[in-house]
Structure of Threonine synthase:
Amino acid sequence: MSDDTTPAAKSRRNPSHVSHLTHLECTACKKHHDADRVMRLCPDCGKVLFARYDLEKARLTMTKEALAQRPRGMWRWHEIMPVRGPHHIVSLGEGDTPLLPTPKLGENIYIKEEGLCPTGSFKARGISAAVSRAHELGVEVVAIPSAGNAASALAAYGARAGMRVHAFMPVDTPLLNQKECVVYGAHVTLVRGLISDCAGIVRKRADAEGWFDVSTLKEPYRAEGKKTMGLELAEQFGWSLPDVVVYPTGGGTGIVGMWKAWDELEAMGLIGSKRPRMISVQAEGCAPIVRAFEQGLDHAPPVQNATTRAAGLRVPGAVADYLILKAIRDSGGTAVAVSEDEISAALREIAAREGIFAAPEGAATWAAAKKLYARGVLRWSETVVLFNTGTGLKYPDFVDVDLDVVDP
Amino acid sequence: MSDDTTPAAKSRRNPSHVSHLTHLECTACKKHHDADRVMRLCPDCGKVLFARYDLEKARLTMTKEALAQRPRGMWRWHEIMPVRGPHHIVSLGEGDTPLLPTPKLGENIYIKEEGLCPTGSFKARGISAAVSRAHELGVEVVAIPSAGNAASALAAYGARAGMRVHAFMPVDTPLLNQKECVVYGAHVTLVRGLISDCAGIVRKRADAEGWFDVSTLKEPYRAEGKKTMGLELAEQFGWSLPDVVVYPTGGGTGIVGMWKAWDELEAMGLIGSKRPRMISVQAEGCAPIVRAFEQGLDHAPPVQNATTRAAGLRVPGAVADYLILKAIRDSGGTAVAVSEDEISAALREIAAREGIFAAPEGAATWAAAKKLYARGVLRWSETVVLFNTGTGLKYPDFVDVDLDVVDP
């Protein structure tokens, strides 16, 4: 086979790849900043930076027909993705996950199945975007505090990019997340504490040792990867949006990213002004967004002594709390906490009825939805999307086995 | 959202779905059989049955352009898939897995990443096809002997189809496979023995209890699902085929299915006569195909006392041995055994260099390829595809962790 027909050669030369990234904009003080240097939070006010694009240019090539014909994966949205040179893209095949009908949960319920992403979770999207852009900007060493899946993803994409990866995780992070990090060759440290404690260590050591801290929403590009979930949802529903999105919320990058995605699609004329009601789901043992929503606050005070077996929901405080709360309120949505028992029961129901082994964070969305149907907040006639953010395979403790053993 | 714009409504009415399935044909005695009744092996000679299609009709709609525009997944090849009514398709989003360049293994090496299939392995393809067709033919109870991943897949797809599932697995099957089966609600029995012992139990009990036995290649449709790996490979290489395919071989349905796929594509004018050299990889502790290949045999006598930690390779005898050996020989390929240590080392190399946590069966292909490059059987200028048949997440015993623990 001659070299220029291989997929690798094609992707190296991909002449159609272009990004219309223009600048970074602070989500709070609205100041503009240079997108082509390594940036984290707004240097002026310390809040979250968003990547901005020339959407007038992007709309010229991002037609529904063109998008449908591109090779699959989240990088087919390249005009509104942050990487300028396609050879900097670090990809393991992330994106374009199935939207599965789940009629035995409800005739109008779908699961967006992020468990089929590389490294088994939606974290692959954000990390692919962040690592690719960091690679383009010359970063060689990255560090992350993580509840588990983000570290797994960073370890994988970092290995693929040839970067050194430092991961800091709570000591009770699921063992499989720890093993993933190790097999990918990351430097892993377990911390007797929560993800917020890990974040504190990374903050201190990153400056001292020259690591780039890819904590979620403390750099501008993980949200760009996550936003592709929202882009896909629009396309999968025929360039409309469902009535309701139920989303498990730890750091909340998915809600923030999808909300941004839909604004960009509307600006390009690809969807209208309708938005889903955004339902944020947290665990009773760690529900800062739910509390803040109920109390009418714009920010969510961190939870003390956070506990839940759904590791990805054990996030006491989110840097983007104000963006999450605004998206929920602007959409007419709500925030719901579910118990550990409700999560376990929902996990089993989804598996036995629909053949999907969801992560507990994903199962929490079904637990929450059932409550909201019962309360009349959700109606069975509405189109509802539950986000399963990862594979249940990483949480074997949720399933007990006691099987018959026989001789042949 | 009105009902007829939802993805579920669209897939229910999908007017373009048609299968050109015509009959079943015995791969040995060549007799034809009715495809529209429940069939297993050839009723005349006991050998493997293949599904046959009207390829002259199929080629009219299976143009390269049309195929590229269809929604993703293995069911977009519906003209040459066995399900007649699209409402019988039981899908979890299987197929269209990434073909990942792995330049740090070798500039011309790719990994076909089946770890991103539903239930984390390539078994999803065969099982989706078999369960869908069984559903169409009225089957309500299915049974399977399995080394692990096939049972996981059958438990998931069976749950989704509303079937009862009976799985029989060796007592030392990876614990995660057992847990998957349990969470999906399957009836699981562990057997003190090998997959061949499990097969014996299923054979006896299936007749007595009216279960449909979906043992690989003992029914005609799992191979049809597996063949979609070959269809995708042709499309992903721009309607050509790579020089070499390296494939881990337990039951061997993948080799058999892909070989069949390429004949069908050639008959429809979609590819030429070039075929990859097929390299079959087995573990030293269970290498019936390798031995038979080396001894010039047409059939592979079963291995006694099969042992390997790569559970999917612990298959002492394959019902399709004659088809596997013929494909290897017709292609100018070979068969190679690798040691447990070579598998473990290869698994770590793939993860640390390329960010892919392969199953040990998949890692075995890189272990084998390295030997063949060293011997000059493979050349670095050739385009080589390694099949990673599943996610490494199900084999946590391959990774030891001994991590630093610190206080915040």
